[in-house]
Prior knowledge:
The complex is a heterodimer.
Chain A: E1 48-52, E2 58-62, E3 65-66, H1 80-91, H2 103-113, H3 120-129, H4 144-165, H5 182-193, H6 197-210, H7 213-220, H8 226-233, H9 235-244, H10 248-273
Antiparallel strand pairs in A: 1-2, 2-3
Chain B: H1 7-22, H2 30-41, H3 51-81, H4 88-94
Helix pairs in contact in B: 1-2, 1-3
Subcellular location (chain A): Mitochondrion inner membrane
Membrane topology (chain A): Peripheral membrane protein
Function (chain A): Plays a role in the assembly of the F1 component of the mitochondrial ATP synthase (ATPase).
Amino acid sequence: MFRRLVRLQGPLGNILSPDKVCPRNQQLRCAVNYSSALVEKGRFYKDVSISQSEGGLYEINLDRRKLKTPGGKLFTAPNEAMAIAVATEWDAQKDTLKYYTMHLTTLCNTALDNPTHRTKEQMISAALKFLETDTVCYRVDEPHSLVELQKNEWDPVLHWIENRYNVTIGSSSSILGPAIPKETNDTFRQHLKSYNFWSMTGLEFVITQLKSVVLAIGVIDRHLSVEQAVLLSRLEEEYQIKYWGNVEWAHDYESYELRARTAAGALFVHLSSESSTVKRKLMQN
Amino acid sequence: MAAMAPALRVCRGILKELRASIGPTYNKSLAYNYVMDQFRKNKITGERYCRAQQEAHHDSNTYLCLLGSTRTHLALHKMYHGKGECSQESAAAMVGLRLPTQPGGKGWEK
């Protein structure tokens, strides 16, 4: 029986990259195309599953094809929990693929491909630079109720992190921001060095989203929940919303997007740095 | 300081989110099995303050937040930003105007 070669043609007609043509006998090698943002890709798979490869790494399978990163590498997750979470993201896609809802997948792709070729040291330096303009340290002078709100909400977090890491950060209402002593920087640098490359990718992501090193560390150390951290990060906006009113298509939209990204980043850090063992305790009567 | 919902509520919340995003087959999915497994494993502890249990509780809260906010964000996106470009007629109708018509054509059209 003859079988026709199934040619997958994009809307650009003949301008095809080699990746897009998938003859039947090469199905297992087909790259998942992330292609352009303009073309909406439909869900082309039915089942999502995970499989373990050598080295304890996990791969994602869409029907019978293995998921790949945008850089063309094979997608590998460091443990089962991460793989299941990513698989769930792919499984939750309905008729079209919406990459902007697949936060964990994006983070994994960034960690695997490292498209900007950054080292862990560069990421740590970039993260610590954020400390100089940390949201929690940057205070206003007026209106008075906002000053009070900032004091009541942000001071406890500052005290917590100063106690926890034995550092001085302080807050400032000048335009230059607080003066961070060198010892504080060194302490944090030492602490951040203990995270592996994947965790550091996630942590930097959370810092960039929350615009605050203090709040990011608060979430990662499980002192704050994600919702609390997002609220603290958007404190002034929430204050203005209470005064002027809420605009759903802007405020809620941004709030939920920030929550989703921060939650994804925090989960990414925790899943990348955990390792679990099961120890059976004998029941003693 | 992290005042979080009790574990049972988080568990049910996660299952609700999974059902909403995956569909009726959610109780056969990988995530369902893994989440239920983790909740059962961490339920009983001999310690008074069990760090692993606290960590797992925080992680489950984080995952619930992730699932819930991505779904809400997607719904908001579809509602407000998903329509794409509209035609000239509907753009004009948005402010209560109509496009001008010239009966007989403009003369230079076919």
